[in-house]
Amino acid sequence: MEVEMTKIIFTNGSFYTLDPSQPFVESVVVEKGRIIDLGTHQEMILQWGRTGSKLVDLYGKMVTPGLIDSHLHLSGVAFNFLDLDLTGIKSKGEMLDKIHAKAKTVAPGKWLVGMGWDENLFSEGTIPTIEELNYVAPHCPVYLKRICHHAFLVNSKALEMSQYHPSNSVPTGGTVVLDPMTKKPTGLLLESASQLITKYIPERTYQELKVGLQQAMQLAVKQGLTSVHTNDPAYLGGLDATYKMYDELLNQEGQGLRCNLLIDFPYLPRLIEKGMFAGFGNEKLQIGAIKIFADGAFGRRTALLSEPYHDQPGQNGDAMYDQETLYHMVQEIRAHAMPLAVHTIGDKALENILDVLDQFPKVEYRDRIIHTSLVRHDLVQRLADSSQIADIQPRFVVSDYPWVKERIGEKREPDLYAWKTLLDSGVLCAGGSDAPIEPLNPLLGIHAAVTRRSPGDTHGGWNAKEKLSIAEAVKLFTVGGAFTTNEEHLKGTISRGKLADMTVYSNNLFTIENPDQLLKTDIEMTIIGGEIKFNK
């Protein structure tokens, strides 16, 4: 008679629990997806190694609590599988070549959609013109999102298919960039001007989106992630379709990855109508905070600053909403006792949202201030509140330097990506990638937090006093992620009673001498609820 194995002993590992009460163990015992015991190899085998227990030998590998990405867009990662991926392109010529190659596979009149371009990586420093886009893709409309999702490139066919006319009204906050001489479109659209185009792009079918999302989930697990906080309804067909897709993949088809869904503000009425709220769901799939934008990004000088941009005097950036509108949005969110997730890049945007939040009582779940890229010294203590968390993206320092120094100027640089200052001041912080805007790989985020430079660079790091230790960086992607969704009782440390979510590495992150060894570290195993979901 076959004996059912009810317990799994993960043993012979170097477990860094991040739990101060028991910081290091050799073995962890799991039953029904939870950690029931942990200690030395000898203790756990003696206590639990009877018939019916399964042993998993980790051969001395390092283990941490399961990695958590506190802010990304799995839908965007999915579209990288479905559309033209321009991430990492190093020149305008290379970008045009990729567009041309893709256009050859697109039927006349069908849309060529892509994303990920970043002119700051281009050797020329200039973006393709509308004439160049017309040349490489004359027969199909082209729509290309910049890596930040705040700027977009289109060709003439896209404008034609979208019935664009100079007299068209542009959505508030958006700009159709015109040639100063001819007054004709250059092909560049900023912010909400993209809506002039997107409403004419045929939507992907539900099944196409689901296949892409499944691939994105599988990639996340291979990268060592056990949980993600993802913002998707605007790209997956709305709230109903998004939740249905995630529910099918996670609860019915067992993809394994745990997902917390950020819901865009326009979907709040439908969320309430469906009886959903923060924490709705289960350990695999939950509703999270309501997402809004306070400003834009540094790249196009749309991040809202207290003082003008250093390289464009007179320009302070753009508030996504005036204070009265922002107040009423938060009022509506709080009326349903929901937490807030606010995109804030500039220091003035941060001040604006803190001013509004101060006028409302706290709710059960923490508000998250996403990005918190530029934080004036006088705002730091206002962030140090246990009811809110700074949701930071360490890889931004790689993408934004050195050009961001010209944007904000030397005087403000000490306030830029000031993660060490935030942590030392008692601000709760979590780490995310903002993928696909930055790479999904959490080890790259940890490397950026520790070195504050690009892989391959040899300098001491940008604004080096704000470097984090490897331990602090790992905690961003474990303990911090758990706090963000008020799940510190379930995740973030390897402790008795918590979910058996763990990540196994090829190198010991806490003993490496050179942080660049992070770049040579592989994920050996991803364990979710005691199940090995990835094994290299």
Describe the structure.
This protein has 18 helices and 24 strands. It is of the alpha/beta class. The strands form 4 sheets. An 8-stranded parallel beta sheet has the order 8-15-16-17-18-19-20-21. Strands 3-2-7-22-23-24 form a 6-stranded mixed beta sheet, with no helix packed on it. Strand 17, helix 10 (323-335) and strand 18 (340-344) form a beta-alpha-beta unit. Helix 2 (74-82) crosses helix 7 (206-222), helix 7 (206-222) crosses helix 8 (239-252) and helix 16 (442-451) packs across helix 17.
Topology:
Blueprint: E1 7-11, E2 14-16, E3 24-25, E4 27-31, E5 34-39, H1 41-48, E6 53-57, E7 62-65, E8 67-72, H2 74-82, E9 84-85, H3 92-103, E10 112-117, H4 130-136, E11 142-146, E12 151-154, H5 156-161, E13 175-178, E14 185-190, H6 195-198, H7 206-222, E15 225-231, H8 239-252, E16 258-264, H9 268-273, E17 285-293, H10 323-335, E18 340-344, H11 347-357, E19 367-371, H12 377-383, E20 388-392, H13 396-400, H14 403-408, H15 419-424, E21 429-431, H16 442-451, H17 470-476, H18 479-484, E22 502-505, E23 523-528, E24 531-535
Parallel strand pairs: 1-6, 2-7, 8-15, 9-10, 10-11, 15-16, 16-17, 17-18, 18-19, 19-20, 20-21
Antiparallel strand pairs: 1-4, 2-3, 4-5, 7-22, 11-12, 12-14, 13-14, 22-23, 23-24
H/I helix tally: 18
- The count of strands amounts to 24
Kindly report how far apart the N and C termini lie.
32 Å
Give the spatial strand order of the biggest sheet: 8-15-16-17-18-19-20-21
Largest sheet: 8 strands, parallel
Shape descriptor reads: globular
Could you tell me the strand content as a percent range? Answer: 15-25%
Output the structural class. alpha/beta
The residue ranges in which pLDDT falls below 50 over 5 or more consecutive positions are none
